[in-house]
Automatic annotation (TrEMBL):
Origin superkingdom: Eukaryota
InterPro entries xrefs: WD40/YVTN_repeat-like_dom_sf, WD40_PAC1, WD40_repeat_CS, WD40_repeat_dom_sf, WD40_rpt, WDR48, WDR48/Bun107
Gene3D superfamilies, per database record: YVTN repeat-like/Quinoprotein amine dehydrogenase (2.130.10.10)
Intervals holding WD repeats: 76-107, 119-160, 169-210, 213-254
Family affiliation: Belongs to the WD repeat WDR48 family.
Source organism (scientific name): Prasinoderma coloniale
Protein name as catalogued: WD repeat-containing protein 48 homolog
The organism's taxonomic lineage, starting at the top: Eukaryota, Viridiplantae, Prasinodermophyta, Prasinodermophyceae, Prasinodermales
GO molecular function, one term: ubiquitin binding
GO biological process, alphabetically ordered: double-strand break repair via homologous recombination
PANTHER family xrefs: WD REPEAT-CONTAINING PROTEIN 48
SUPFAM superfamilies: WD40 repeat-like
Keywords in alphabetical order: Repeat, WD repeat
Amino acid sequence: ARQGAMAQRRRRLTYVLDAADDHGDDRHCAGVNALVASSGAGGGGGGSSWLWTAGRDSSVRRWDLRGAKPRAAGALQGHTDWVNAMALLERSQSLVTASSDRTVRCWRADGSGACVGVAREHNDYVMSVGAAASANRFVSAGLKGEVFTWDLATMVATERMPEPEPAAALFHAVSVYAAAMDGAGNIAVTGSTDNVVRVWDARVGGAAKPLKLLGHEDNVRCVAVNAEGTMALSGGSDATIRLWDLRQHRCSQTLAVHSDSVWALAADPRWTSVLSAGRDKRCYRTDLRSRESSPAFESETPIAAMAVEANQASVWVSGPSSSVHKWFLEGGGGRRARSNAFVAGTSPIAHKRMVETAEAKGEVLATPEQLSPAATIEGLPGIVQHQVLADKRHVLTRDSAGQVALWDVVAGEQTRSYDKADFDETFKSIETKDVVTSWFAIDARLGRLAIHLECPQCFRAECYSVDLGLGGEDDVRVCPGDIVLRSLLSRWVDKQRRASGSRRSSKDPAKAKGEAVKPLVDTLAPAASVVTADASGVTWRKAATDLTGAEGVDMFPEWVIDCVLRDTYPVPAGLKCSFRLLPAEGSNLAPIPNPKLTAPRILRIRKVLKYIAGKQDMNAKEQARPAHELLEVMCKGQVLPLDYSLAAIRAHVWKRPEDLVLTFRRRKA
């Protein structure tokens, strides 16, 4: 029971903030990891009709290619982490996606976007999927060496392939970054971090050891297999492409055309040529019969994924940027074949020397003719740098376009833009001396700020309601974690209570404080998505505005339900501070009757001055003036700013373990 309670507490709730100008936008805001082109119906000129893009922002998006410009045609939301790979099963109009959230999901590819299955067998990031063109089967692979084959109809794993043995020199499990399947779903090919290409035959069962194809000298990053299951291609971090004969179990060709890691491969339907791309930003088309290779184009960023259109005349590529680009291939877009081809070597070292020699002579070897893409699906800038201010409420960010902005994570909104200011200098100029307990964790892994709340940490900070702009008396203290949870889930709570006929408890802190949470509801909730896990540990994501109230309480961590429905949460110890308040020597002011006091750590000097003034014998004229115009408080001889809290004084001025000592005197003219 104790372990169950601990597990409940460890379940966290995350909210992801959209920028004010991109809420509801159809574009990616982080790198695009995977692409799939679909011919479908209505493809103009033999080209593809649809393009699917999957990104590091956890979304999968569909684009209509039938017009003059690509048009957004829907998004699939459900993954909670990077989507690393996709595979389309056109026979059943299904799309399979693999994610770092450890799930494989199956979606309707007909435009409805319905998620029809979720597979949860993987214990770590799922890095790749490969589908059979003529059968409802696919393979998934990921970290920890896990490889599964699946029946699409049931989303049940038909085989779990035996994990590769750990490499002796590394002492950890091999990870699998690439997977592909033949047309019938009988042969699966994988590439892993032990430099090995493995061939799995589903017909003999997962207990059988795979065929190992050796030759790569570094990680295998991409693989492909032909429809008949007789040939395979692999690309590696050793900058080579290898063609394998699966019947003879040998490497029939080694192609060295790149100067760095090969991350993406696409063979033509007859397997007479292959497109390759990777870290060196170049895409090459290589003839597998003559070994003649020519550069198709050079991208501005490394190329992580490719999707060739049905007519083989153009290709879409993506990488760490949130934008996706279309490039014409040889003969596409009215282009003629180029004459800057070369014969691929077998050694990447020799290829590199050849390039360096040509450059030394002032020659340019195999320069792509295309200088710019034929079309672009523009993405949004994603956050690439962030830093939390000392007040544990504001976060400074910088996006991929260089824009610097300030965010309020309690209100859930961007409060200020600094354009393209220097990030570090801006942070120094706005940093405060506040000392506030950390109550959240934060990252920008998805290209947007994700704020993670866990119990009891998220309830350990407090602040005054007026500091949050909630109004009310200036001595009302609130917990920002409590405020955020009530704001995020306010609509869900209201619908739950209406459905059950219950009312908010009279001991509800929000009600007792004059419904202080209300002003935040309309600012935080619409621009935020909720990410958490249900009772079985399966993660899910929804926009806060899409919560219908039909979601059961078991969809949320128990501690969240305690807070928003049962009006209770663990109140931490240590929120108060003891200090002594004495008149300064020679001040001629009356001493405080009981100079040893205890107050909230967030108490500010402005309030201390009001307390002191109330204990002094002042005339009517003095009583009419604000206390801070008459008095000042010092610590170790230093006059304290009005906005300093007791916690800040202890940390920045007092710097001792014993009780804080403050002195007061009349303010000098």
